[in-house]
Design a protein that fits this description.
alpha+beta, 31% strand, 36% helix, 5 helices
C-alpha cells in the first residue's frame, strides 16, 4: 500500500488521512457512510490509488454494503478539478471461481482468493458522471 500511495498524485493531506484511517484513527478526508470492515475499505482505497494514480484526490466518500465475500457500492472522489464517482464490486468468490480455486469440499475458495489477490478481486470498477 505504501508504494501505491507514494505513486499517486493524491494530495499530501489525503495521503496522510489514508495512513491515519489504516492505522485506525479518525480522519477527515476518508468518509465511510455505513459500517464497512476496515480491510474492505483498505482494498477499495488501494484499488482507487492504483487504478487512478493521476487523480489529485482531496477526499473520498464511500457508500456500500459488505458481505462475507463481497463489497458493493460507490465512491465519490473529490479533486481540485471536480468530482468523479466509481461504482464497484469487490468479490473474492468471483475471483476464486475465475482462478479455479476450490476448497476441500469443492466450493470456490474465497479465503484463499482474498489472501492471494487482496485488492485485485474487483469484478467491477466503472467510472460514472458525478451528479
Amino acid at each position: 500500500m505504501k508504494t501505491v500511495i507514494e505513486s499517486s498524485c493524491a494530495t499530501p493531506d489525503f495521503k496522510a488521512d489514508v495512513a491515519s484511517y489504516l492505522s485506525g484513527e479518525r480522519c477527515e478526508r476518508v468518509k465511510v457512510e455505513t459500517y464497512v470492515p476496515r480491510v474492505k475499505v483498505q482494498r477499495l482505497l488501494t484499488q482507487l490509488l492504483a487504478v487512478e494514480p493521476s487523480l489529485e484526490i482531496e477526499q473520498v466518500v464511500i457508500r456500500g454494503m459488505a458481505g462475507c465475500s463481497n463489497f458493493i457500492g460507490s465512491v465519490d472522489v473529490h479533486t481540485a478539478s471536480g468530482a468523479a464517482v466509481f461504482e464497484f464490486v469487490w468479490c473474492c468468490r468471483w475471483r476464486a471461481e475465475r482462478e479455479g480455486l476450490v476448497d476441500y469440499f469443492g466450493f470456490p475458495d474465497q479465503l484463499r482468493a482474498a489472501q492471494e489477490f487482496d485488492w485485485r478481486c474487483f469484478q467491477r470498477w466503472e467510472r460514472r458522471s458525478a451528479n
